[in-house]
């Protein structure tokens, strides 16, 4: 009996130590706490990130506040408050065996995902209005080394005889994405390249419209340069071609604080 008790206590101490180490590792993961974005005219906006362990609790920016809900380590809901008009949007995420299969913004849109055997992900996006839904576009996501490297999609709302498609390619550095350590964040396929393990240096967008035998393609390039700390996390990002909040393209400096 004494021998059994000793074994029990040794096992208990081992499990407690293992649990403690696991928690320490989570606590030691580098998490983004604040972002300051400065435009060309010197105007700055600050965004604050709040956590519970490695779970993101909220993101508070100048124009929007987002609250997150988790279920079994996966992000299952985002509630976004627009601070200007005080309207809120609820977005829910559904999973199958840990993989995202549906994103739904009630009354606005729905995205369905299919995870293929070749590790690509097919998707369809529908616009929802009342009881009506219209397929806006469908496409495929391509991944390599835990990075989203390409997003190809075809618009489904074009007139008969006209085809419109878009291909977005991403080139990365070999450094750490400041958002990658957030639990469950890499599963959010609707967040594009920000779910990748590295940081996007160049986004190449090629839009092609085909009408009969005629095809017109337009290419745009969005480039960024980074500065990093001693642990290879970005401390600053500068882009002359950033897509700004108003939809225009221009200079933007982003500073990261951990």
Structure in a nutshell:
By secondary structure, this protein is mainly β. The chain has one helix spanning 2-28, and strands spanning 34-39, 44-52, 55-60, 64-71, 74-82, 88-96, 99-105, 109-115, 121-129, 132-144, 147-155, 162-172, 200-211, 214-223, 225-228, 234-243, 249-257. The model is unreliable at 1-25 (pLDDT under 50).
List keywords for this structure.
single chain, 258 residues, mainly beta, Porin, 17-stranded antiparallel sheet, 1 helix, 17 strands, 10% helix, 57% strand, disordered N terminus, DUF4595 domain-containing protein, signal
Report on the structure:
Keywords: Signal. This is DUF4595 domain-containing protein. Residues 1-22 form the signal peptide. The chain has 258 residues and is mainly beta. The chain has 2 domains: 1-30; 32-257, Beta Barrel (Porin). Helix content is 10%, strand content 57%. The protein has a 17-stranded antiparallel sheet, with no helix packed on it.
Order of helices and strands: HEEEEEEEEEEEEEEEEE
Q: What is the CATH domain class of the largest domain? A: Mainly Beta
Structural class: mainly beta
Tally of strands: 17
Helix percentage: 10-25%
Q: What about the largest sheet?
A: 17 strands, antiparallel
Mean pLDDT rating: 90
Poorly predicted runs of 5 or more residues? 1-25
Total domain modules:
2
In the CATH hierarchy, the third-tier topology of the largest domain is known as Porin
What is the strand content? over 45%
Distance between the termini: 52 Å
- What's the total helix number? 1
Shape-level CATH architecture of the largest domain:
Beta Barrel
**Rg value:** 22 Å
**What is the overall shape?**
globular
Signal peptide: 1-22
Keywords: Signal
Protein name: DUF4595 domain-containing protein
